[in-house]
């Protein structure tokens, strides 16, 4: 993939590990627990990297630099 719009995220579930092999741009990773609460955010994960979060049950991949927009939306009540 060459690019990803800043308004788009890809949720992978169930998921505790991801890799960025084959990516051509950095990703922000938003790790969620079973209840959908944010447990960790990894920002600007470069291509050809591996990340794991054992507390997570899913991850949302977004374009590097976009995580704040998504975490604000995920943590707002309602």
What percent of the residues sit in helical stretches (DSSP H or I)?
10-25%
State the shape: globular
Mean pLDDT: 93
The side-by-side strand order for the widest beta sheet comes to 1-6-3-4
Q: What's the N-to-C terminus distance?
A: 33 Å
Number of domains: 1
Summarize the structure.
The protein is mostly beta strands and 78 residues long. It has one helix spanning 67-75, and strands spanning 9-12, 17-19, 27-32, 38-45, 50-52, 58-63.
Essential attributes:
78 residues, four-stranded antiparallel β-sheet, two-stranded antiparallel sheet, 38% strand, globular
Describe the structure.
This protein has 78 residues and is mostly beta strands. The protein has one domain (9-66). Helix content is 12%, strand content 38%. The protein has one helix spanning 67-75; strands at 9-12, 17-19, 27-32, 38-45, 50-52, 58-63. A 4-stranded antiparallel β-sheet has the order 1-6-3-4, with helices on one face. A two-stranded antiparallel sheet has the order 2-5. The termini are far apart. The mean pLDDT is 93.
Please outline the helices and strands.
Elements: E1 9-12, E2 17-19, E3 27-32, E4 38-45, E5 50-52, E6 58-63, H1 67-75
Antiparallel strand pairs: 1-6, 2-5, 3-4, 3-6
């Amino acid at each position: 993939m060459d690019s990803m719009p800043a308004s788009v995220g890809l949720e992978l579930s169930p998921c505790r590990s991801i890799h960025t092999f084959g990516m051509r741009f950095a990703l922000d990773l938003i790790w969620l627990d079973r209840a959908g609460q944010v447990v960790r955010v990894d920002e600007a994960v470069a291509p050809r990297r591996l990340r794991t979060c054992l507390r997570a049950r899913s991850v949302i991949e977004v374009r590097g630099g976009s995580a704040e927009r998504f975490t604000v939306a995920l943590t707002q009540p309602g």
